Amino acid sequence: MAIEKHSTPMLDQLETGPWPSFISGIKRLRDEHPEPRINEMTNDLLGQLEHSYETRKGYWKGGTVSVFGYGGGIIPRFSEVGKAFPKSKEFHTLRVQPPAGNHYSTDMLRQLADSWEKWGSGLVTFHGQTGNIMFIGTDTQNTQHFFDEINEYGWDLGGAGPCVRTAMSCVGAARCEMSCTNELKAHRALVNNFVDDVHRPALPYKFKFKVSGCANDCQNAIERSDFAVLGTWRDDMKVDQAEVKNYIADKGRQYYIDNVITRCPTQALSLTDDNTLVVNNRDCVRCMHCLNVMPKALHPGDDKGVTILIGGKRTLKIGDLMGTVVVPFKKLETEEDYESMVELAETIIDFWAENGLEHERCGEMIERIGLANFLDGIGIEPDPNMLSHPRQSSYVRLDGWDEAAEAWFERQAEAGK
Amino acid sequence: MADMREPIESGCPDPWQYMHPMMRKNFGQWKYHDHPRPGVLLHVAYSGDKIWTVKAGTQRILDVFTLRKLCDIGDEFAEGYVHFTLRSNIEYMVTDEAKVQPLIDALEGAGFIVGGTQNSVAMISHTQGWLHCDIPGTDASGVVKSMMDELIDEFRNANMPNRVHITTSCCQINCGGQGDIAINVQHTKPPKINHDLVANVCERPSVVARCPVAAIRPAMVNGKPSLEVDERKCICCGACYPPCPPMQINDAEHSKLAIWVGGNHSNARGKPTFQKLVAAGIPNNPPRWPEATAIVKRILKAYKEGARDWERVNEWIERIGWPRFFEEVELPFTKYHIDTWRGARASFNSSSYIRF
């Protein structure tokens, strides 16, 4: 049976131009899909979207939808203009956790597509900004059916609301020579320890994990996660001098002086007269720049591990915050190493759950109570690597100084320094 | 609901089962990479194994037909495996160099755009917009489609000084994140309150708690419990709107676009940076948003001409200085560019460093 198509003159203009058009995709579902339910749903979706374009307003409202046994993971959407567009008046999104590192087989993608056209609109995004596969558009009843089906063959919901959220990790060791850790393992160890906290929102606000294999931070972990794990190393960078010479032979000495030597943020590099690169590893901060320019010649050292930064987040509510270094270096090799990282995450989330205010991210709590109190609360000793510089304000009580100084020397002695 | 089943709480799936076999084989054993042409990466392992990656931009919001088309291409050329990037590009890995060009041809032939590697303008990462968000001031998907139409050559050709990450966010909460260039909606008027609905719909204390500047307080209006906004304090962020839809923030006329620059999440050469406001008051003008795109293109042109190799947008501006940046991109500098937030003083110039 032919449906009465909404007129979409404004959206039609988004079908012009060379970049692939999401409007054309939605129209294909409306016009070519064999399932009338999908034709009608996407037709009304286009109708509502055109209405938004005309009036420059959104018309979706949240609500409460979840699958049996869980409290979160669905983004409920009810239309305020459902009378005019009844077939898409319920248009919920399921957030589904991707495999760590976003690797897929086409067989698996096809299986997901089959399930989604059986129960949903046929629209999907790889991936949303938090890292979930977003299955966009289904009604309340089919939400459960779709989840049951994909849950049986290996997929689980991600987080929505005040909970541990879906995590993200870079392609890392699977295809990158800069990888300093097993990103996939770190990702799964962290987030899968908190499945209960993912599915049943009960925290002050959201809590995100992200893992990047090096300081290039391709996952944007420092700026966008409460618990950022970045690969690094602490022995000497590896230099293949023959490859350095090859690079210089290719683009000339001037280019590498201007683009490598002088760009080093800590002036840890120099180029000798015979084109040998000298690295002062004590000064190197592993920023990755020189390795990025000369990936054949320069490689991370062997003593690899991770830096952990806590408290990064977006704008709401005290402005954007970067994560703060809380663990300058941690080995991640043995099962015990991974377990102790997960224990740290548990300690931090527990402390924040007890001390955070409603709708307060972990980084905002740290700002409110102070980094020193936070470290005290999670049982981590202060380290100069946690700061850009020591305190500037002289308004501070220092009557515990002697004890703190003594503790520092004891810790240094224990560490063999 | 006769047969409710308990969920299997499996969490994040193990990617090992979906990873290209060549990546599994050389996991953690890659030696270096090369960039044979825009859109293509070559990774070489210590074993001598090679893998070529072809990256393609898509419409991000995929219909199942498009998803299956992408799978068909993966089956034909890439042994049935794909990888998605942070910015929703799809990547195909091939182990035979002879397949690279036919794969590119197949992708381009099917309407996808190969590019987005190294010094390109990468695919714009974006939020849900009018298609699905409950507080969107604009349609991020439409803005991105319109903008990528105009920036397609910069996606296809990697000839910027360094990579450029563009993001969009459809409100000031900024889910789109930090970008070298960020196009965000900026509401410019306080919420309009429908006092008849507040008591029934909103949990008033949580709405009060959401406000970042303590501009909202409980009040009795027309004999009913409601909320009121101190409009002198209100920064028009819209954070009160999700927990309280009767506090309408979106406005066809007064929700504008603003452009921010210099967000850089990498640690390379300098510590990560946040983006800074450069332009505001840009009309929210569907379906093509030409005014916003024109400013983005001016910024990109100035950056491309003025920056040195490897300089990201923030590093280029730091070198030439903000006065010259505003001059080069022909944008006005106003009192609204002066930060008023906590820690604003850190952004003031307390030196004699002046550029003439």
Itemize the secondary structure elements and their pairings:
The complex is a heterodimer of chains A (417) and B (356).
Chain A: H1 9-12, H2 22-32, H3 36-55, E1 60-61, E2 74-75, E3 78-79, E4 92-96, E5 103-105, H4 106-119, E6 123-126, E7 133-138, H5 140-152, E8 168-169, H6 183-192, H7 195-199, E9 209-212, H8 221-224, E10 227-233, E11 238-239, H9 241-251, H10 253-261, E12 269-271, E13 277-279, H11 289-293, E14 298-299, E15 304-310, E16 324-330, H12 335-355, H13 362-369, H14 371-378, H15 401-414
Parallel strand pairs in A: 8-9, 9-10
Antiparallel strand pairs in A: 1-3, 2-4, 4-7, 6-7, 10-15, 11-14, 12-13, 15-16
Helix pairs in contact in A: 2-3, 4-5, 9-10, 13-14
Chain B: H1 21-25, E1 30-37, E2 40-45, E3 50-57, E4 61-63, H2 64-77, E5 81-84, E6 90-94, H3 100-109, E7 113-114, H4 140-156, E8 166-169, E9 181-187, E10 192-193, H5 195-201, H6 204-210, E11 216-221, E12 224-229, E13 247-248, E14 255-261, E15 276-282, H7 290-306, H8 313-320, H9 322-328
Parallel strand pairs in B: 8-9
Antiparallel strand pairs in B: 1-2, 2-3, 3-6, 3-7, 5-6, 9-14, 10-13, 11-12, 14-15
